Amino acid sequence: METNMIKAAQAITQSRLTVALTGAGISVESGIPPFRGPGSLWEKIDPTEFAHIDAFMKNPARVWEVLMGAMKEILDTARPNKGHLALAELERRGLLSAVITQNVDSLHQKAGSEDVIEFHGTFATLVCMECGSATPSADIRLNALPPRCPCGGIYRPDCVFFGEAIPMDALERSREFASQCEVMLVVGTSAMVQPAAMMPVLAKQNGATVIEINPTPTPLTTGTSDIFLKGNAGPILTRLTEAIPIPARG
Questions:
Q1: How far is CA 169 from the centre of its chain?
Q2: CATH code at 89?
Q3: Is 120 a catalytic residue?
Q4: Which residues are paired to 228 by β-bridges?
Q5: 68 and 151 co-located in one domain
Q6: Is 188 part of a structural domain of the chain?
Q7: Which residues does the entry assign to the active site, renumbered to this chain (predicted)?
Q8: CB-based contact 201:21 (threshold 8 Å)
C-alpha cells in the first residue's frame, strides 16, 4: 500500500491535468446508501418500478412516496466527508482540474469543489415539469405528494431517471477531460454503469495513469487501473492528499 501511495502521490504531483471520477462509494461515509451491491437501495426497491421515467410519469405520487421522499430526507441532511474534502483540497492546490461524479447528492460542491460535472444530474434541485422553474430541494416540503410548483406543475428532481439520456454537456465535458488528462482518480465506483464506466478506459487509451480507490476490486482493477489503493474513500484520499507536498510560497 505504501509503495502504491507514493506512486500515486508522485503521479498527481507530476500531472499537468488530473481529473477524478467518483461514484456512490465516496458518499457512503456520509450516510448515503449505494444504489448497487450489498445493502444497496436496489436490493430493497425495484428500480424499474420506482426509478424509471415511465414509472414517474405514470404515478409521480407513488414514486415520490416510495423512493424520492426517502432520498430527499437523507440528502437534505447529508454532509461532505473526508473524501469530498480531500478532493476539494486537491483542487484548491491546483492539482485537480475537475470532478466527474455519478452521484446526485451535490456533496462535492458542499465540500468546496468548484468544477463538478454531475453525470446523472442532481437531487439538490427540483424542476417544475410545467413551467421549468428550479428550486432547491431543501426548500420544498413534502406535506402533499407529489410536491407542486406555485404554477400547479409537478416537481421532479433534476437528475437522470432510468430511461433518460445523460445530459449532453456533461457527457461531452467528461469525454474531453478523459481524453486529455494525464491522471484519472477513480473513487468509489463499481465501474458497472455506462457510459460513466468508459471514462477511465478512455483515459487509459489516451495515455493517462489511472489511480483507483475502492474497498474491493472492480472490472477496472485488472487491465485499466495502473495503481490500486484498497480502502474506503475518506481515509485513502486523506492519506493521499497528505502524501503530496504543499509547494512552498516565496
A1: 16
A2: 3.40.50.1220
A3: yes
A4: 212
A5: yes
A6: yes
A7: 120 (proton acceptor)
A8: no
Q: How far apart are CA 205 and CA 184, in angstroms?
A: 12
**Catalytic option among 52, 84, 108, 120:** 120
pTM over 0.85: yes
Q: What is the pLDDT along the chain (250 residues), one digit of tens a residue?
A: 689 999 999 999 999 999 999 998 999 999 887 655 555 554 555 556 677 899 999 999 998 988 777 778 888 888 999 999 999 999 999 999 999 999 999 999 999 999 999 999 998 899 999 999 999 998 988 889 999 999 999 999 999 998 898 889 999 999 999 999 999 999 999 877 788 889 999 999 999 999 999 999 999 999 899 999 999 999 999 999 999 987 654 4
Query: What is the Cα–Cα distance from 249 to 246, expressed in whole angstroms?
Result: 9
- Amino acid identity of residue 111, one-letter, is A
Same domain (yes/no): 227, 146: no
How many domains does the chain divide into?
Answer: 2
250 is a domain residue:
no
Three cell numbers written together for 177: 477531460
DSSP per-residue letters across 61-122: HHHIIIIIHHHHHHHHH----HHHHHHHHHHHTTS--EEEE--SS-HHHHHT-S-EEETTEE
- Find all residues with CB under 8 Å of 81, minimum gap 6, and list them: 26, 27, 29, 30, 107, 233, 234
Please check whether residue 25 lies inside any domain of the structure: yes
* Cα–Cα distance for residue pair 200/220, rounded to 1 Å: 8
Final residue belonging to a domain, choices 135, 159, 183: 159
Q: Give the range of the structural domain holding residue 232, as residue numbers without chain letter.
A: 1-31+79-120+165-245
Three cell numbers written together for 234: 475518506
Name the DSSP class of 249.
P
Assess whether 130 and 210 both reside in one domain: no
Residue 45 lies inside a defined structural domain of this protein? yes
Tell me what pLDDT residue 34 has. 66
